[in-house]
Amino acid sequence: MKSALGFLVAAKRCEIQGLEQLEVTSGLVKGVCEFVHVLQKERGTSNVFLASRGQRFGEQRQTRIEASVQMEAAVRAQFDQLDTDSGKMASGMRLFSRIAHVLHVLDALPGLRQRIGAQKIGADEATRSFNELIAGLLGVVFEAADTAADPLVSRALVALFNFMQGKELAGQERAAGAAGFALGRFDTAAQQTLTHLIEGQERCFRIFSEFADPTLCQIWRNVQTLPEVAEIERMRRLACAPSPQRLEADAADRWFDCASARIDAMRQVEDCATNALLSLCERKLEETRADLHDQKHFLDSLSASTGTQGAAVAVFFDSGSAGLASGPTDGTSAVLGADGLSPQLGRSVLDLVRAQAQRLQNINEELGTARAALHERKLVDRAKGLLMSQRGLSEEEAYRLLRQTAMNQNRRIADVAEATLALADFLKRD
Amino acid sequence: MKSALGFLVAAKRCEIQGLEQLEVTSGLVKGVCEFVHVLQKERGTSNVFLASRGQRFGEQRQTRIEASVQMEAAVRAQFDQLDTDSGKMASGMRLFSRIAHVLHVLDALPGLRQRIGAQKIGADEATRSFNELIAGLLGVVFEAADTAADPLVSRALVALFNFMQGKELAGQERAAGAAGFALGRFDTAAQQTLTHLIEGQERCFRIFSEFADPTLCQIWRNVQTLPEVAEIERMRRLACAPSPQRLEADAADRWFDCASARIDAMRQVEDCATNALLSLCERKLEETRADLHDQKHFLDSLSASTGTQGAAVAVFFDSGSAGLASGPTDGTSAVLGADGLSPQLGRSVLDLVRAQAQRLQNINEELGTARAALHERKLVDRAKGLLMSQRGLSEEEAYRLLRQTAMNQNRRIADVAEATLALADFLKRD
Question: Which residues belong to any copy of the ANTAR domain (chains A, B) (predicted)?
Answer without folding.
Answer: 360-421
